[in-house]
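Below: protein 1.
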Amino acid sequence: MLTATNFISLSDNPFSRRGSYLAFFLDPTGNTLYGKPRLYISNIRGNGPYRQIQAQIVKDGQALPTVVSSTESEVILESMAGSFRFCIGESKFVRIKGTDGLTLRLTPKLSGFGLVTDLKDGCWQFGFSTSTAVLLPFTGKVSARVMSSRVLMGTSSATFEIAPDENGVVDVGIEEYLIDPIHRPLDQYPSYEECVKSYQDEFDTFCEKLCPSLPEPWEDMRRKALWTIFGLMVENDNGETIFKHTMIKMLHGTFEHVSGWQQAMHIICLSGSDPALCWTILRALFDYQDANGRIADILTDIGWNHGSMKPPIQGLALNYLLDADPELKYVSREDAEIIYKGIVGWTQFFFRCRDWNKDGLMENQGAGETGWEDAPYFNIGFPLASPDMNAYVAIQLQAQARLGRLLGKDEAECAAFEKHYQDMVDMIVKSFWDGEKWFAFNTDTGARSQTNTISLMGALILGKALPQDIIDKTIKTLTEKDKYLTPYGFATEAVDSPYFNHAFAQGSIIPPAQLIFCLALERSGRFDLAREAGLRYLMTLREEGLFHTHNALTGKPERGMVALDEKFLFWSAWSSSIYLFMSQRYGKVE
């Protein structure tokens, strides 16, 4: 009986490549038991569904039971009779090779008016989600079964079977096109072996530059975390998508998009390793800034949600970048000017558009703006003023003053930003602290939050700018046993709260809570507690996987998510960046 051997199982993390919209998925159930998994070559452009071409091994006309294995650079479809190997050799090119005398069956899932066309040179063209694909037979004989619909003329379905040559070899490619395909001569494509080398060399270089090593015992997950980030990176592709600079998507499948506040967290986590990359990511956010100064939070390859936004932690990220690069060695003057103008506009947005009663405090207008979309304290309704969001705006004022001075901006302007920062800190304490705890309130009704949601303590990110007694009381609450600090990290709702539930911001272990509150503890002078909490989360990620959400009571992944055709959440770049950051920061054995 065959058992899969994996670098990372595709049931946990689909296989892709930096800058590519090709990926390998298993079927939505993610079942890896021999004979169960179905392997798909996928196009992850647009909004899904993401499984378009099923790949099967065929012998004597019968599809064989298989397992799916992986290495860092290959996917392997294995049967008892032999195997086929797959690699993303170029951003738009997959090459597949088998040498065991078996037939490869490829079944595209076509929809709408997806045509299947015989190109009369041995190659076949067919619809590939929002793109077009060309099947390129390098070795082996293609047999195509094409069926046209009589209901919608011009639509068709197809099955391709590629039989081995006299030496038992099948060697084919699939190339993606966004325009009418004109493919290269077949001898101008990289060989399968060259594809694997290209992938592996690029990934090795990425690892060496971003994080060449980690302290034990965290090293064994290092390349897996880097591979997760690597496969979720988007690049400037000369206008084929909206992306003009490098950014990092959230995770494959359900959240196949870039998130603006997650970019800020990637910057914080990676600023000490690759400040040039982080400046690029920060610069990228201002490609999607509207006339009022808002930067979009949800970006896909085909567009962005103009109404989307998340908390403005870009100022916090900018502070970390300036700490890592105080002389601006890794950012051009032109880009630094764009970032300065952009972040000033982003801050101004909140005073223009999120302070309706003009009392100097910012208000969220809906749950989607908060970063904690299902938090129970939203039961008091909106507009909602909260301490965390106002703290982020204050820090952004401080950060833009720092960058402004480095760029030689008017000192009066920079000093005004700093004074506004101090004024906001004072206002946050006066407005959101009741002497014992933090609260949010509805600015229309005056109703105060009564839940134990961790984000209500988010003003702790102000650190030493807060009065010491407030710092001490907040930390005591945050680290009290059997409340927020579980054996697996910080829960988003205290586990003894009547509002506790197994949901994103109702009690789960999620990436933003771990990073924000570890940094808050550090900035409050308690690196020891930050390290304790960080090590708990690190152990959860190392033992349970780099998933998006973990259970606060067991540490197990909370994978359930019904959206598009997905049933599970996969490993995330968010968790992966935090893993690298915390491993380097907290992981050394003393």
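Below: protein 2.
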Amino acid sequence: MSEYAAPLADLEFQLRAVGGLDHVLSLPPFEGVDAETVRQILAEGGRFAGKVLSPINRAGDLTPAKLENGQVRTSPGFADAYRQFAEGGWNAVPFEPKYGGQGLPWLVQTALAEMWNAASLAFALCPLLNNGAIEALAAHGSEEQKRLFLPKLVSGEWTGTMNLTEPQAGSDLGQVRTRAVPNGDHYKITGQKIFITYGEHDYTPNIIHLVLARLPDAPAGTRGISLFVVPKVLVKPDGSLGSRNDLRCASLEHKLGIHGSPTCVMAYGDDGGATGYLVGEVNRGLEYMFTMMNNARLAVGLQGVAIAERAYQQALAYARQRVQSRDVAGSSGPVAIIRHPDVRRMLMTMKAGTEAARGLALQAAAWIDRARHAPEADDRARTQALLDLIIPVLKASATDFGVEAASIGIQVHGGMGFIEESGAAQHYRDARILPIYEGTNGIQANDLIGRKVARDQGATARIFLDLVQDTIDELDLFTDEDFAAMRGALADGHAALTRATDWIVKTFPEDPRRAIAGAAPYLKLFGLVAGGWIVVRNATAAEAHLGLGEGNETFLHAKKTTARFYAEHLLVQAPPLVWPATQPASTLALAEDQF
């Protein structure tokens, strides 16, 4: 397996061209940060990812975390890498300085997180879950909970998890049965949770679990779920550690991939109940969890970007050094397989799709910063609506592409890709969980249709379509054939997405089942158009730099070529998706006994 090298040139370019870094840094909390500081942070982050995290990735796959006498021993090198990660301050990047954070934009955090995930997806899952716990406690915890837990979670001295689902519940959290019984100033928690990433490990002396549970008199379904903070080791009022809480890792899951990440079955209350503390108000736990869902789903979408980048880098390195067969245009002997047109097609698909997904993730992150910190309330509200709309599109389209890119990477390797020693197979196995994490991609499609498009009668979707139309109109300023190809494909995609959106707005109130039956094709259509919008903006920014005679010409010309490839090979797949998105009759036609 080749080592990872952070794609700093593309990250820095897209931070400006798509993420609007200069605008984000002008927002009130970030006015003391300049673009050069961001560049230095990214460079050091890339070094850490390449030199510290990438070398442990293969060890995590070959030597999974294991459970010994109730203690999880993580894969070789992981605990030491985590120590360096925390000591380097990487855990604290986007959080408030009053809790020890660095107060940097989520836009910068997103660029860094791509590097962590690309270098070692299994390792990066720990800080990902910790970030979610911090966000939830910062938004809904009491002042005492914030005082006790946030500084050490932000520093990485402790880590956090989220305990949501159970064996009988799956994605239907209304079926949660874990109980919370009042006991003085706290609650006794009993029950079992599954799929708990880093629920137990040897990185830190304490783990702060956020647990969904139900009070004895709680109403049925999702309305009766509350959120509790349940430390592995109880914390005294002065912040020091006390006795071990009544919880344990009962077993580790044996998984297809991400072997270095311990996925735990957690048992609460073997000896009468784990001590837990209510977060916020009773029966509002699911609501509280959803306050950090945009960030969590952005983080998972970013994992798709990361694994696509890692698979692309490995496939590209192999294609450059693997010599096989003569060039079809004629050669005296075998050539590197990157000379073969079909290999170039596969590599271009990986490159174009990854850059589009990366840009969409950076756009979403910039919208997080703007929705939180823009001076005008109307701007914050509009940006939040756009963010809510794009998150399911990003999560699903980027993770689906991550799987596709990892599969293409195996194909580039040929037979060697199917052999574990090449390392290409690990990327595919690691990637396959991503369309399932944080709500399956089918759930993302349903969310897009029902909560994001139909609920406001398509108003926010039309704002997004207007942004795409603005980019199409800008292309009229360019005359060369590259931009003509981009304009035609993006205009056709825009028309297709508009047509499908109008159908959903009309159909969902009348027959939601019909509308939902086409949700997955609609989301794919949306993702292709959103990706086209991103790469075209990259291309126009590159052309502007070329016109000014600044920047690396080779890199900038590649931006234009990559955007044209996306338009001609990927974006052209959008218009035909209108049919499966809006014609669900055959999807729903069979009776259950006909399957």
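The chain has a mean pLDDT of 96.
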